Each structure stands twice: as structure tokens, then as C-alpha cells.
Hints:
The protein has helices at 3-59, 93-110, 122-130, 148-164, 222-297; strands at 77-83, 114-120, 137-139, 169-177, 183-191. By secondary structure, the chain is α/β, with parallel strands linked by helices. It folds into 2 domains: 3-18 and 258-297, Helix Hairpins, CATH 1.10.287.80; 24-204 and 214-255, Pyruvate Kinase, Chain: A, domain 1. The model is unreliable at 201-212 (pLDDT under 50).
Amino acid sequence: MSQRDVKQRIDAVKNIRKITSAMQMVAAARLRRAEQRIAALRPYAGAIRRMTRHASDAAGSEVAGNPILQVHETESTIGILLVTGDRGLAGAFNSQIIRAGLRAAADYQAEGKQVRFYASGRRGVSSLLFRKLEPVGSYVGFSDRPAYANAREIAEKLMAEYVDGAVDRVEVLYNGYVSALTQEVRREVLLPLQRATIDEDVEEQDEEPGGTHALVEYEPDPEIILQRLIPDYVEISVFRALLESTASEHGARMTAMRSASDNAAEVIEDLTLEMNRARQAEITQEIMEVVAGAESLV
């Protein structure tokens, strides 16, 4: 390879490194904002969870009439919500959710159950369509900054499907945010609420020193309050999954772009050495030609 060819490759790799470095900085800035949104959501999510549980305890047998709280006698159809991103270039962020969702579906189908897919994010939707698994619900265009209205749209669809009997159980798979370098696949039960596992890590904050719950008086009746709280609980659970996924996506992209930039630097270093060797070889060849010409004149 000539010096010119090597220099062109070096310039091309340098341009790629500029792009990956810029994408890394953008992802880092978006990650900080996503972390702030998660931190702001936690107190509200914890309060909704505690209020819902306490209202359910106070309502007692009255909760049986609420269709969202009723556990179906059989679980013949399972709904699986995959939370992915709209874009790629984030390492295994999207693929690991899709693989986990397909494995879960295969396990349920092996038990003779049917599976209905729901997907948030273009990557999840396109992957399911590619495998001829058309999702019942598709939600795209907001993975970078999800709004509460997006969570409400998804939650309303899932609750309607559960109440109508289209699904007997709803699970959500998303990338849980641990740190900028670490994201973990989380598989949690969303419906029915009695078996919900989302937000179970929220600590109790309204217990009295003796370990008993503070006395709460309800106006209107607790079953009426519960009926209003349940949709909020499901919506906030979906919103939390969306925010966690967003932070995880930015963290994964930042890490992937940093790795790409480091790899580009190594390639540039290797190509530079190759170009220097090529230059040295050309200089040596020219010296030999000059010496040979001088000797021919003697």
C-alpha cells in the first residue's frame, strides 16, 4: 500500500473518531438529564405505590370488583412489552432485550400458552416485524426523552387488553439503569397488580417508629380512591421502565462511542507506523538508486 493510500485511510479514520467523540459527549449530556429525571420520579413512584397498597388493604373485600385487581383463573395468553430504543449504535442495548423477550416467549409457548407482543422503540418493532411477529401495540419516536403521556398511552392499552381478557398476564422487559457502564435486563410483572414486581424496591417511608403503619382516614371510601389510584400506579410503573431504559440507552451509547473512539485511535497509530515504514522504504529505495547511478558513472 502506498503512502497516499495509507494517508487517505488515516484521514478517514480521524473523521470517524471525530463523529464518535461527538456522539459520546452528546450521550453523556443526555445521560445526566435522564439520571435527574429518574431521581425526581422515585419519590412520586414510591408514594403512589404505598398509597395504592394501603388503600387496597383498607378496602378489603371491596377490591374484588375491580377488574384490574382480579387475577384470571387461567393464564393462557401472556402479554410481553419490550422496551427498546429508536436508534442503534449502543452496543448490545437493544439486542439483549429482544433476545430476552424471544426466550421468554419461547418458554411460554413450550407450555402451550400464547404470546402477544407490545414494543416501545423502533428497534424492537422492526426486530419483531423482521421475525414476522407483528406487535399488537407499537410505540416509537420518544425513546430519547419519553413523556408521561407516552407511558399513559402504553398503560391504557395494556390495561384494556387485560380487562377485556385478551391477555391474562403482562410482563415488561427493559434495561434497568445501574450506572453509566452497567445496564441489566429486568423482567417484571406489570399485571395483575397482586403479582406486580415493579417498584418492589421502594422503601417504606410512612411507618411509625414501632413498625406499624400510620393511621389513615379515607374520604371518599378507600375503594373509590383505589379505583383512581390503580391507573396511576400502572402508568407510573410503565413510565419508570421508560426512564430507566432511556438512561441505560444513553449510558450504553456513551460507552460504545468511547470504545469506538479508542479503537479508532489504535487504528490511526497502526496506520501511522505503516505509513512511516512505507516512507522509509521509499527513501531507502531512492538512496539505493542514487548510489547505483553514481557507481555506474565511475
